[in-house]
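PT: before anyone asks, these are the final sequences, not the draft ones from last week. 663 residues across everything. Please model them as a single complex and drop the result in this thread when it's through.
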Amino acid sequence: WSLPVKSVFVTFPGDVVKNVTDVELAESYLKRFGYMETEHRSGFQSMVSTAKALKRMQRQMGLEETGELDKMTLEAMKRPRCGVPDVAN
Amino acid sequence: YKTFDGDLKWDHNDVTYRILNYSPDMDSNLIDDAFARAFKVWSDVTPLKFTRLFQGTADIMISFGKADHGDLYPFDGKDGLLAHAYPPGDGIQGDAHFDDDEHWTLGKGAVVKTYYGNAEGALCHFPFTFEGKSYTSCTTEGRTDNLPWCATTADYNKDKKYGFCPSELLYTFDGNADGAPCVFPFIFQGEKYESCTTEGRSDGYRWCATTSNFDTDKKYGFCPNRDTAVIGGNSEGDPCHFPFVFLGKEYHSCTSEGRGDGKLWCGTTDSYDEDKKWGFCPDQGYSLFLVAAHEFGHALGLDHSNIRDALMYPMYSYVEDFSLHEDDIEGIQYLYGSKTGPDPTPPQPNTPTTTPYPDESDATEEPEPTDPSVGTTPSTVDPTKDPCKMLKFDTITVIQGHLHFFKDGQFWKVPSKGDGGRKGPFSISQSWPALPSVIDSAFEDVQTKKIYFFSGSRFWVYTGSSVLGPRSIEKLGLPPSVQKVEGALQRGKSKVLLFSGENFWRFDLKTQRIDKGYPKYTDAIFGGVPNDAHDVFQHKGNIYFCRDRFYWRMNSRRQVDRVGYVKYDLLKCP
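LR: through. Structure below.
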């Protein structure tokens, strides 16, 4: 094991998937699937905290409810899935 | 299970559906069949009846589309979002949309139906041999007309059974040309086209004219994807071009270099650096049947379940022999009630009770001194546990040259040579009685044949049937922060790399201590593999890094030359 492999990441033209950070990925996932916004009976909409949204997502996915963006949660967010929101609004 | 707010459901049991268009990935008959089977999943347990319409408005309108496809919820390219559907109601409600940037299959790679030839439309048989050479995809070898073909049995020379594979030279689909093949070159808006194109369309689908001049004849159809075609990227429909040059280096197979997501891709011209033409390499794809069954659950009124094995769980996972989960049945029957009328009586087996597997005759075939269970009938194994349905294993390692897959007190073996097939399950407690049921890592010292097992912060060393341990891994010199050893890789005769988290340490078998200068970051030495692999082992000269269902294979030149599924490639699942 002499020289390490130097990985160079390039931007591929036409690639729909863009390089995003884990935090950006998590935020868009939580928003897209309904974990961030809560609509009250009155019609009033409010945003929940990221930690609370993460816990809701972790409960839905059967993961440990840490409220943190841990490895298991991030992996779950990267898995192929249905586009229907998990929390209906 | 969960239903949508207000328990949205159809107010009639005779639900209609219509397929608006097809994916270029599969023959239309196979798509029709997948959708019909997906509806049957639900009609088998409810009074619902599904009727297909060929025109007009149906309750459930089914379509394939890419990215922005006409509703407020665009798809996102390959992987990620696969499909979506709307709960019952008028208009778009009840409709199901499938992302055509996915590779749609039946879950196990391209399904290639043949046309013409002499095989009556049978599916291609991969691999097949033709004039002594093995083919894993359709080929134009042996033909002068450039039409791709395949054998429908394993040996063309013996059986002479063949058919032609989907290509734009054979037929088109949808459009207005009744499936006529493309005519090349053709003229479109005064320009000459020599191949299928996406020009003139905003939906990304490839099309061609079926006469020599589209401007005058207006006849066109969509091009079917060849089985060798790349997926997505900017060269959809083109085959990989091997070798291709990327960042000055020549590649002879698909690679994950240049990408942060580990997906395999290839160039579709001889130089990516010059032409920037690329696409993802064909893979196992997603089962249209399974995804459709899930989406139709939404179209009937079911929301996402939080039961992992339920069909309505939001994540995709492939299962070979699908059966509807009790949770899904309860959910759909809450909305529509249970099926009325008598159930057909299942055929009864006319054979006496069978011997549980593995039986003694299996066991006596393969006595192994350091693997004591193999000579006995394990009493604690659960033969119904199917390793092919397991998402991941506690550890995978090579013992006596054979791959061993450990999970929850059991293990399975896959011989490295011959086609003996997978054996097991065997009981860990009968083979190595001192061990706990969960093994995080194991390796066999190639010199002494001692087998080291790691579980949590403890390890054991077996020599034949005698055992040393448990001992704390701290005794080896690993820091207390190491909770478990997740992979082991022997380098040379007396060094072993032990992996944990994102680090690895080098262990000296002679001194039984960790060498100085460690830990090191895994990704600093092993480029292009997940730095949080939970199994690392060496097999047939390659190093395998596993995460969940996937492995990254690193060859002796430390290049990741393949990313694949553990269960298909290593566990040899069908």
